[in-house]
Amino acid sequence: MSKRPIIALLGGGQLGRMFIENALRYDVRVHVLDPDPQAPCAGIAHHFVTGDLQDERTVLEFAADADIIGIEIEHVNTAAMEELQRSGKRVIPDPRVLSTIQDKGLQKQFYRDNGIPTSEFELIDGPEAIEARKHLLPAFLKSRTGGYDGKGVMAIADVASASSAFPGPAVLEQRADIALELAVLVAVTDDGAHIVYDPVEMVFNPELNLVDHLRSPARIPAAVSQEASALGVRVAQAFQAPGLYAVELFLTKDGTLLVNETAPRAHNSGHHTIEACPSSQFDQLLRIYMGWPLGGTLLRGTAAMVNLIGEGGTGEVSLQGLTDVLHVPDTFVHLYGKRETRSGRKMGHVTVLGKDATELDQAISIIKLHCKVVPQEDRQEV
Ligand SMILES: Nc1ncnc2c1ncn2[C@@H]1O[C@H](COP(=O)(O)OP(=O)(O)OP(=O)(O)O)[C@@H](O)[C@H]1O
Ligand SMILES: [Mg+2]
After folding, report:
1. Widest CA span in the chain
2. Shortest-distance ligand to the CA of residue 153
3. Around ion ligand 2, which residues have CB less than 5 A away?
4. What is the distance, to the nearest Å, from the Cα of residue 347 to the centroid of all Cα atoms in its chain?
5. To which H or E segment does residue 260 belong?
6. Which of 77, 114, 342, 371 is the most buried (most CB within 10 A)?
7. Runs of H (alpha helix) within the chain
8. CB under 8 Å to 299, separation ≥6 — which residues?
9. pLDDT range class, residue 2, cuts 50, 70, 90
10. Mapping DSSP to helix (H, G, I), strand (E, B) and coil, where does residue 82 land?
C-alpha cells in the first residue's frame, strides 16, 4: 500500500459524502465514481469520475490507481470487484458477499443455510408459481435483483394481485406480523474481531415506504435488545469477511426476531452515530478499510434521526425551518447537497440527542413540523 492510500468508492450519494467528511480528518484520499455528475460527492471527493457503476471496464479503470475499493450502493459490477481483488487490491465488501446480497433470493437462501431466522420463503419465476404456494399468503413479493428503498417490493394478499405486476425472478416471502422494525450495525475486522452498536428502531412512513425517523435505543426490553444485537453479530460473522454490516430485523408481535435483509455498507439507520457515538459508522468503516483498530460504539443518552424527504414536487432545493430546528438543543442538520429535490427523495437528515425518550419525542415533533425540503417556487417565508 502506498504511503497515502487511495480509497476508491463506488457510488457518490449521501453515504459517500458523510464517509468523505470523516475521512478528511485523517487526511485519507477518497476517489468517487457515480453516474450523476452532480452527485452529493461531486464537489468534495479528491477525484470524482462520472460513469456507470455497472460497467466492468469503467469500474476497473476508475479503481486502477486505488489501494482500497469500497461501495456505498450495492448495485455495482461484481466481476470488476473480483478482478480488482485478484490484482491484489483490498476490496470491501468481499465480492462473494456482495453477490449474495445483491440477489434477495441468494440472500434469503444464505440465511436458511446458516440457520439464521428469517420469514418463510420460496424462490419463484412467474405468477403461476404462487398458486402452489398459497400457504405463504399474505406475502411480500420481492424482485430478486435491482430493488432499493422499497422499490421492487410488493405486498400481496392473494394470487390475483401478484399477476398484474410480477417483477421477474422473485422471492415470495411470508408476511411477518411486525411489531417493530430494528436495525443492528456490526463492524468486523480482518481477524474477525467485531463491535456492535445499540439496535435502532425504524419508524416507517407507510405511504412512501421509507424510514421516517429512527431512534436509539429502541423501545424494547433489554433482553430483546441483547438478542437483536447477538443476531446481528451472528449474521455479520456468517459472511466471514471484514466489513460494516447493517442487519435489518423484524420483531414480530409474538416476540420473535427475524432477519429481513443485510446491507454490507454504511446505512441510513446508522446516521445518528455521527453525533451520538464516539466512533461513527463512517469512522468505523474507514478503520476497517485501513486495518486500524475499531472505535467505540457506546450511545450517549438517546438519539433520533429524522429523514428530510423532499415534498411538493420537483425543483431546486429550498430548506424551510432551519432556524426553528437549530433552536432545539443538540440538533445536527445534514443536507446532502443534492441539486434537485423530488417528492420522496432523501435530501438530508436531522439528528437530535436527548436526555430521555420524552425530550426526544418533543424534538422529533418540532423537527417534523418545521423542517421541510421543497422546490424553490413553493418557498414560503420562514
Ligand atoms: N416478509 C415481510 N413481512 C412484513 N413486512 C415486510 C416483509 N418484507 C418486507 N416488508 C416491509 O417492506 C419494507 C421493505 O422491504 P425490504 O427491506 O426487503 O426492501 P428494500 O427495497 O430492500 O428496502 P430498503 O432499501 O428500504 O431497505 C420492510 O422494511 C418492511 O416494512
Ligand atoms: Mg430494507
Report:
1. 60
2. 1
3. 248
4. 15
5. strand 257-263
6. 371
7. 14-23, 56-63, 78-86, 95-102, 104-113, 159-163, 222-238, 273-276, 281-290, 322-326, 357-370
8. 197, 198, 216, 217, 276, 277
9. very low
10. helix
Question: Which cell numbers in the block locate residue 288?
Answer: 476497517
Amino acid at 208: L
In angstroms, the Cα distances linking 304 to 178, 252, 318, 321 are 21, 22, 23, 18
One-letter amino acid identity for 328?
A: V
Helix (H) or strand (E) segment spanning residue 304: strand 302-309
Please tell me the distance from the alpha carbon of residue 195 to that of residue 324, in angstroms, as a whole number: 36
Residue nearest to atom 15 of ligand 1 (CA): 150
* Cβ neighbours, 10 Å, residue 38: 13
Average pLDDT of the segment spanning 144-165: 80
Ligand 1 binding residues, C-beta < 6 A: 119, 140, 142, 147-153, 173, 175-176, 178, 181, 204, 248, 260-261
Query: In order of start, what are the domains of the chain with their CATH numbers?
Result: 6-91 (3.40.50.20), 120-174 (3.30.1490.20), 176-297 (3.30.470.20), 301-382 (3.30.470.20)
What is the tens place of the pLDDT at every residue in 14-50? 999 999 999 999 999 999 999 999 999 999 999 999 9
Residue 211 has pLDDT above 90, yes or no: no
Per residue in 51-104, pLDDT (tens digit) is: 999 999 999 999 999 999 999 999 999 999 999 999 999 999 999 999 999 999
9, 19 contact by CB (below 8 A): yes
Cβ 117 vs Cβ 110: under 8 Å: no
Q: Whose CA is closest to atom 16 on ligand 1?
A: 150
CA dihedral 285, 290, 294, 296 (to 10 degrees): -60
Could you give the CA distance from residue 47 to residue 227 in angstroms, rounded to a whole number? 42
Q: Is the pTM of this model over 0.85?
A: yes
CA–CA separation, 173 and 167 (whole Å) = 14
